[in-house]
Every structure is written in structure tokens, then in C-alpha cells.
Amino acid sequence: MKILAFESSCDETAVAVVEDGRKVLADAIASQVDIHALYGGVVPEIASRKHVECIAALTEQALKEAGCTRQEIDAVAVTYAPGLIGAVLVGLSFAKSVAFSLGVPLIPVHHIRGHIAANYLAFPDLEPPFLALAISGGNTLIIDVRDYTDMVILGATRDDAAGECFDKAARVLGLPYPGGKPVDELAQTSAGGVYKLPHAHVDGAPLDMSFSGLKTAVVNLAHHAEQVGEELDRGALARDFTQAVSDTLVPRVIEAAKQSGRTVICAAGGVAANSIIRSDLERACKENGYTLYMPPLKLCGDNGAMIGAQGYYEYLAGHTAGMELNAYATRDIAEGL
Questions:
Q1: Phi, psi of 195, rounded to the nearest 5 degrees
Q2: Which of 30, 108, 209, 223: CA 20 to 30 A from 200?
Q3: Which of 158, 178, 160 is CA-nearest to residue 170?
Q4: Contacting residues for 67 by C-beta, under 8 A, at least 6 apart
């Protein structure tokens, strides 16, 4: 089954062709990073307009790379939530028109389910059930993946997402947007242990997280150093900040695995590309006898292939939609249409 998949939830326009949920025939991506870097973050209106400008040509490119015609497409999958609402609407509207014109099913895919499904593309032997740590610019979740389309949130951030904190930390450290990779690279230049940063706990919800205090602490440290004329150890702050994020995530994932009885853990999302978090996850899983799957770096960020992979399993579960399908800025990963 060949699925034409669309992803436009933020600042990447992505179109892919995926076969049977596991084989990537094409994965075309048009990034807007250079444009939004001028503003230090994603400008929603600009993101939406850029999606409009390139999605048609990108679709032609994906079909050409896949070596298949429109008539060979069996279904269309698309991100319908969550994300920047204008950006999501562009991809959804275009996907609707394609599905209607081809006379094939339209498959709605939750963006975070797509990130988890990126692991199916990298690891053909991976099957649910397993525990997933989904960490991105807009979401930080610990999810019990009971089946391909049956998922329950066990833990979540109460405020900022981990990826958002990396972008804010990067800004005060004088690093470019997006901040994940620059902060990671800067952190590698120091052993850390210089700055004491907060590690928040949520009363009565040991698997939930909070990052707003950590973000504020990094901003305050940088501003204080500037105000009193002290030299900021940027490498150490990047390292200590990243370690604080990892120390928030990793122990909770291990605890969630113990509580749920899962022995397989998957990482997903853009922040899963961070080298320190990956290393800490590997070490913790090894110590506890868990099997860990982490997608290659190219599949951690937003891409169309992950939407096509999850779309295949949504289709098998009978999750298709009509032209009335709407887009949503927020949506629980376990919530139906």
C-alpha cells in the first residue's frame, strides 16, 4: 500500500511516499529555518505562506523520487493536529484536495504519533507495546504505546516543552535559532558542574515535568552576569542546562517503564537528537535491562515519512476521515476525531 503523506505543522513542509508503513520511497522536505532564524523563532504567518508556496512543487518532487504515478497512490495521510493552526491548515487543505481528486481515503495523523512511528521506519522489527518518550519543540510526553493506534499519556510537561527551553537557552547564550543543535555542540566543550540549576517536581504526579523554572533560571543567570560585568561560562551553562533537562526526562522514563511493566523504550521528536540525552537514555536502559530504540537524527525532526508510517496503521485501524476534517492547534494523542 503506497501512502502519500503531508506534514506542515510548523516550519518544515514535508511530502513523502511510504509503502506499507515501513518503507520510505521518497521523503522531500523544504525547511524554513533560515527565514525564521532572522526573527529568533517561528513566525506563524510566514510559516503558513511558505507552506502554500512550496507544497505543490514538493509533492511533484516526492512522486518523482518515489518513481510512482498519482494512480499508484492508495491513500493520503496528513498531520491534522497539533501545531501552528495556519500551518496545519495548509497541509490539511492540500491533502484533502489530493485525496478527493484521486478518489482515495484521507487518513488523519496526530503529529506526535507520527514522531513515534519514525522508529518503525528505522527498526523493521519494532512492534508495540512499548514506552515512548516524545520530546520536541512543542511537546514533552511519556506515552504507553499499547498498540499502533492505542496510546495513553503517563507523564507530560505542565508548562514549557523541552525543545522550547533549548531555543530560549540558545538565545541567551548568543546561539542561533533553532537552538537544539548549537546548544548540544556548545555543551560538548565543557564538563559542566559550574551552575546549579533547578530540577522541578510536580506534587502528586511523579511522572509529570516542569521546565519553566529551568528556563527562567538560565535567563536570569545570563542577565545577571551581563549586569554585573561577569564573564559567563557559556560552555558550562549549556552543559549544565542540558544535563538538567536530561535529569528531568530520563529518570521519569525509567520509572514509567517500571510502573507500566514495559521493557522496550523508544525516543521520538527533535530533542531526541540531543547527544547527552541519547547517551543518558542508553546508559539508564542498559542499567535496567531495557531495550532502547532511537531513530537516526534525520528522522528525529519533522518529516513526511513518519506521517506516512503512522498513517498506514491508522488506515488498518479504520481511522479515515471525510472532507469535513478540521485542523487543531492542540489535541491529546489519545483523543479521537
A1: -110, 130
A2: 223
A3: 178
A4: 25
Residue range 289-335, pLDDT digits in tens: 999 999 999 999 999 999 999 999 999 999 999 999 999 999 999 87
In terms of domains, do 47 and 35 share one?
yes
Q: Which of 101, 73, 105, 143 is nearest to 316 (CA)?
A: 105
- Supply the pLDDT for residue 10: 93
Distances (CA, A) of 126 to 5, 147, 205, 262: 21, 12, 30, 14
Q: What pLDDT, in 10s, does the model give residues 109-154?
A: 999 999 999 999 999 999 999 999 999 988 999 999 999 999 999 9
Residues 132, 99 share a domain: no
Separation CA 208–CA 193 (nearest Å): 25
Q: Please state the pTM of the whole predicted model.
A: 0.94
Which residue shows C-alpha cell 533537562? 245
Q: Which domain holds residue 96?
A: 2-117+301-316
How many domains does the chain divide into? 2
User: How buried is 188 (Cβ within 10 angstroms: 0-12 exposed, 13-18 middle, 19+ buried)?
Assistant: middle
CA distance between the termini of the chain: 23
12 and 5 Cβ atoms separated by less than 8 Å: no
Q: How far apart are CA 58 and CA 78, in angstroms?
A: 14
DSSP sequence for 263-307: -EEEEESGGGG-HHHHHHHHHHHHHHT-EEE---GGGTS--HHHH
Nearest to 308 by CA among 100, 65, 22: 22
Give the integer Cα–Cα distance in Å for 145 and 126. Answer: 12
| CATH of residue 108 | 3.30.420.40
- Determine which helix (DSSP H) or strand (DSSP E) holds 311, and give its type and residue range: helix 304-316
Q: Are residues 83 and 134 both part of a single domain? A: no
